[in-house]
UniProtKB/TrEMBL annotation:
It comes from the Bacteria. It catalyses: [protein]-peptidylproline (omega=180) = [protein]-peptidylproline (omega=0). The lineage of its organism: Bacteria, Pseudomonadati, Pseudomonadota, Gammaproteobacteria, Alteromonadales. One of its GO terms (biological process) is protein refolding. It comes from Alginatibacterium sediminis. Its EC number is 5.2.1.8. GO terms for molecular function: peptidyl-prolyl cis-trans isomerase activity. This is Peptidyl-prolyl cis-trans isomerase. PANTHER family: FKBP-TYPE PEPTIDYL-PROLYL CIS-TRANS ISOMERASE SLYD. Residues 4-89 form the PPIase FKBP-type domain. GO terms for cellular component: cytoplasm.
Length: 160
């Protein structure tokens, strides 16, 4: 079966920055993605189409196709209790911010006792990146998955 709209693709990945350094990977447990839904980098989502179980490939993405271009007006001051991990923060450190739109990765600009200045650009924004991808499975999405707008893991839901 080939990946197409309303299929669930199981995949593993390794992500490399423009210097060729490994910066992230999925690990042993494959990730699940309901094709046609949001929540996936556009260039990566498009790359799944017409692939099949067992396919492995490398994908070079421009900044625009990957994590987007850097935005100059991305600095914000936020409450310290919305930043994870709850440890000492240093300028340049990548952390997770519990934003009004959900959790996103941000970079610390300056940290105070109660407030933190952050850069909401993804740390890889403005950079071309490379993904090494392995498709481990492809299946038709269930009616529940389509209705919920995301893939469910083994035994039911893999979300919320």
């Amino acid at each position: 079966m080939q990946v197409q709209d309303k299929t669930v693709v199981s995949f593993r990945f390794k992500l490399f920055n423009q210097a060729g350094e490994l910066v992230d990977e999925s690990g042993e447990q494959p990730l699940l993605y309901l094709v046609g839904q949001h929540g996936m980098l556009p260039g990566l989502a498009k790359s799944f189409l017409e692939k099949s179980k067992g396919d492995s490939y490398s994908l070079d993405l421009s900044a625009e196709e990957g994590f987007g271009e850097r935005k100059a007006d991305s600095a914000q001051r936020v409450s310290r209790n919305k930043i994870f991990p709850k440890t000492k923060l240093s300028p340049g450190q990548d952390v997770v911010w519990d934003s009004p739109e959900g959790q996103i990765q941000v970079t610390v600009i300056k940290s105070g006792l109660k407030m933190v200045d952050i850069d909401t650009n993804h740390p890889l924004a403005g950079e071309p990146v490379r993904f090494d991808v392995e498709i481990t499975d492809v299946r038709v999405a269930s009616d529940d998955e389509v209705a919920h707008g995301h893939a469910h893991g083994a035994g039911g839901h893999e979300h919320h």
